[in-house]
Amino acid sequence: MEDSSTLRLLSVFLTLELLSLSNGTDSAKLECPIRITPDTMVMQYKSETQNATCTPTSDSVPNVDKIFWQGLQGKGTDNTVWFVDTHKDWNERPVCYANFQGIETCHKTLNFILYKTPDSVRIQHLDNSSSVVENGELQLQCDVINVAPAQNLRIHWYRGNETLKTGPMQMTRCWTDNDTNCNISMIRSPVNVSFTVSITLNRNHSGADFRCEAQLDLGPGGPDPPPNMMSSPLSITVFYKPTINTTKLPKTIPVFRGYPEELVCEADGHPPPTIQWLYSSDKAPHELEGKLTVSEAGLYNCTATNDVDSTVHVVVVILKEDYLPLIAGFVAVTVVAISIVFLFIYSIYYKNTKMRRYSLKNPKLSTHDGNVAHNGWDLPLPMTKLS
Ligand SMILES: *[C@@H]1O[C@H](CO)[C@@H](O)[C@H](O)[C@H]1NC(C)=O
Ligand SMILES: *[C@@H]1O[C@H](CO)[C@@H](O)[C@H](O)[C@H]1NC(C)=O
Ligand SMILES: *[C@@H]1O[C@H](CO)[C@@H](O)[C@H](O)[C@H]1NC(C)=O
Ligand SMILES: *[C@@H]1O[C@H](CO)[C@@H](O)[C@H](O)[C@H]1NC(C)=O
Ligand SMILES: *[C@@H]1O[C@H](CO)[C@@H](O)[C@H](O)[C@H]1NC(C)=O
Ligand SMILES: *[C@@H]1O[C@H](CO)[C@@H](O)[C@H](O)[C@H]1NC(C)=O
Ligand SMILES: *[C@@H]1O[C@H](CO)[C@@H](O)[C@H](O)[C@H]1NC(C)=O
Ligand SMILES: *[C@@H]1O[C@H](CO)[C@@H](O)[C@H](O)[C@H]1NC(C)=O
Ligand SMILES: *[C@@H]1O[C@H](CO)[C@@H](O)[C@H](O)[C@H]1NC(C)=O
């Protein structure tokens, strides 16, 4: 029994030496034969306290001289059990050290995070206005109040229910009651932080609701799903210049003499545009609610104007003769002409039939044979006979 334990001790010793050689001089990088239970502690602010225990790994470990926690502000003790104070242990970086007989001191770090979900998450437009002009830049700011640790924050932006794809996260400001410009990669206690994003909007986004969401990404050992908080929505109106509907108002419009045409000028824009028709003063069209009734050739300009811009659409009205009566007249003349031709043909035919009757009477008289006369009626009449 004694022999085997001595052997085991020797083997552990050798392993440590070898690791030490291959790894260079830093013994901190060795697999230190101690165990921290649990090895990860992700604790919520003001949650129930827990302890972390540091012990030598099983029985295969050489004689321990000393094992203790360090990196605990004012609490560096020989105690192998550490109780976290979830009210204020923001800056603790607990490290367990161990001295073994004949080996250098080695240590392990407890993966510890004390986190606090935000008191609030607010979204605002940097201009403080609730509107933006189309294709203009919209700068939104997301303020996350009283959150820790700020470097684990992930911000998501939403337009309606759709996620906005943004570039790398842009943290613009970090502040506390004491420090107006803190460094979030250094500070682990609760801070206020602001993030901004720049987006361009088009008319389709008018009235869109924007929201930002702060998520604490605490890694493995953290709560699943990660804690997150959504801001209330911010509604943004997009102003855009008028667009005249050219489907309803083509560039060129023919007007038949005597038949006035209605020109409909409709424009889409925000704020809703006002419609104005411009035409030379000698024209006298009738105008009503954006609709212009024209009967004269010329240029008619529809102008749609709103606060953003104005758009002009020029309509060329060309006068056309009304060919309908002409066509009708032509058709009537043709019909009359055809009728006359038919009458003429008929009259000729009628005359000839009469003549044939006369020519048939003669043979009837000469032969005195009713049958011959009957046959004569049945035969197709040879035209030569008639002429
Ligand atoms: C440490 O916590 C564990 C459970 O988390 C518990 O079983 C153990 O009793 C605690 N140790 C001390 C010394 O309170
Ligand atoms: C926006 O409003 C905040 C307070 O509500 C004010 O501090 C800030 O100066 C305003 N910004 C602009 C650009 O008006
Ligand atoms: C967003 O909401 C609209 C209706 O409000 C719905 O049609 C659409 O599928 C939703 N999109 C997502 C990604 O949820
Ligand atoms: C965050 O800002 C609010 C005011 O907006 C302030 O009352 C609070 O003390 C700040 N919190 C921290 C941790 O600085
Ligand atoms: C802010 O300063 C006060 C005293 O000036 C101090 O008590 C407090 O701990 C400080 N807070 C932080 C977060 O540094
Ligand atoms: C914040 O701290 C990190 C780590 O010390 C440092 O690299 C970085 O330059 C600091 N940033 C600022 C803005 O001071
Ligand atoms: C707005 O949406 C319509 C239909 O979804 C699309 O055809 C049009 O191109 C969009 N306009 C802009 C400026 O993106
Ligand atoms: C233009 O008018 C036509 C006909 O009424 C309509 O179908 C179309 O949707 C309109 N286009 C726009 C952009 O409003
Ligand atoms: C209408 O617009 C055309 C082209 O912009 C311009 O030449 C013409 O003078 C305008 N007519 C009126 C009456 O404004």
UniProtKB/TrEMBL annotation:
Lineage, top-rank taxon, reads Eukaryota
Q: Name one GO molecular function term.
A: integrin binding
Enumerate the spans annotated as Ig-like domain.
118-215, 242-313
Specify the species.
Answer: Acanthochromis polyacanthus (spiny chromis)
Protein name in the entry: Ig-like domain-containing protein
Which Pfam families does the record match to this protein?
Ig_3
Q: Which residues form the signal peptide?
A: 1-24
> Which stretches are transmembrane?
323-349
Q: Which UniProt keywords apply?
A: Membrane, Signal, Transmembrane, Transmembrane helix
GO BP terms in the entry: cell adhesion
